[in-house]
Write a structure and sequence with these properties.
- With 350 residues, this protein is of the alpha/beta class.
- Helix content is 42%, strand content 20%.
- It contains 13 helices and 14 strands.
- Helix 1 (8-18) packs parallel to helix 2 (33-45) and helix 1 packs parallel to helix 7 (143-160).
Length: 350
């Protein structure tokens, strides 16, 4: 087992290689360029293929091709680049192809800036492209968790034959922390569907095109059944100091770890505050959050956005308790101190 000091995006790259990824196609965009650079250096060392595409549109279609022949494939980008990939991602979701996408979010909308943000939550969890589809979305809060969730993303993508997303922000992508790189054997059985040649068997077809509306509806129904299975089996979350909590913070990714500091500050001030941190943003852990909502007097959702995850928190808890929001946008990261002040205002403590 190796323990190294690594930057977040580079740790994601090494985790992907350890998960068996040997195909990376991408286009440079800040603040994730070190991941592209890392894969350009490391993949040739392990017999893999790195190719810098001429655009994000080209990159996602290269991922489509690699996945359709049964190869583990990954790309990484940042917000505007992820927008450009949406058509290809929709095609892959329909064709049921496994692959991993890393979106290191930056401030937006539009070109925005290169500072940390969480403004792509809706795009990742509600289907950023056309049609009825869902992506598996995982949100790490530490570099170590980014390693573990990258390996999990490949595992879940294969299990469900569905694209999976690592949704991080520029803060996590650029920070350096010690990580343990654990070898993990991930089995990958593509023998029933991958386009590997048709000697001795009938030809296979990987496509998202079906001109018969009844056949297309049947395919859509099959996809929806798969998503329902994900929603039952795959929600993941972390609870911190929730056992006796009277007030709950809800946050994900980097904001989740900042809010952990807020919980400690509040506890030292005599306030019974806990934290709920979704790890899977899709499927969102509605039921466990609903269970806590029955016990607390208020939930404060904290994000680096205008309140996108806030919508899911309200779905889980609005009829059970008071739900409030605090957020900053444009690359401004809320500090523990300002979140704590907002918390005190809400509960009437000054």
């Amino acid at each position: 087992m190796k323990k190294l000091m690594m930057k977040g995006v580079e740790a994601i790259g090494e985790a992907a290689i350890m998960a068996g990824c040997r195909n990376f196609f991408g286009y440079p965009i800040t603040p994730q360029n070190e991941l592209t650079e890392y894969m350009a250096r490391r993949l040739p060392e392990v017999g893999g293929c790195f190719l810098q595409a001429e655009s994000e549109v080209a990159a996602v279609n290269m991922i489509y091709g690699a996945a359709s022949v049964g190869k583990r494939a990954m790309t990484s980008t940042s917000s505007p680049g992820f927008s450009l990939m949406q058509e290809g991602i929709s095609y892959m979701a329909c064709a049921q192809l496994p692959a991993v996408f890393v979106n290191v979010m930056r401030g937006g909308p539009g070109l925005g800036d290169i500072q940390p943000s969480q403004g792509d939550y809706f795009q990742a969890t509600k289907g950023g492209g056309h049609g009825d589809y869902k992506l598996i979305v995982l949100a790490p809060s530490t570099v170590q968790e980014a390693v573990e969730l990258t390996q999990l993303a490949f595992e879940l993508a294969d299990k469900y034959r569905n694209p999976a997303v690592i949704l991080a922000d520029g803060l996590l992508g650029q920070m350096m922390e010690p990580v343990e790189l654990r070898e993990k054997q991930l089995t990958y059985d593509n023998s029933s569907w991958a386009l590997t040649g048709a000697n001795g068997r009938p030809p296979r077809k990987v496509t998202s095109f079906n001109i018969d509306p009844h056949e297309l509806e049947k395919m859509n129904l099959n996809l929806q059944e798969k998503y329902r299975k994900m929603e039952i089996e795959e929600p993941r979350w972390e609870e911190f100091s929730t056992e006796d909590a009277e007030i709950l913070l809800a946050a994900y990714g980097t904001m989740g770890r900042i809010c952990k500091s807020v919980v400690k500050m509040a506890r030292e001030a005599g306030m019974k505050v806990g934290l709920f941190r979704p790890i899977t943003l899709y499927p969102f852990p509605y039921e466990p959050l609903e269970g806590i909502a029955k016990r607390v007097s208020i939930i404060l959702t904290v994000e680096m956005s205008s309140g996108q995850m806030f919508e899911d928190v309200k779905l889980a808890a609005l009829r059970l308790t008071r739900v409030e929001f605090y957020g900053r946008m444009g690359g401004v990261v809320p500090t523990p101190g300002e979140v704590f002040e907002r918390l005190k205002q809400l509960v009437g403590r000054h």
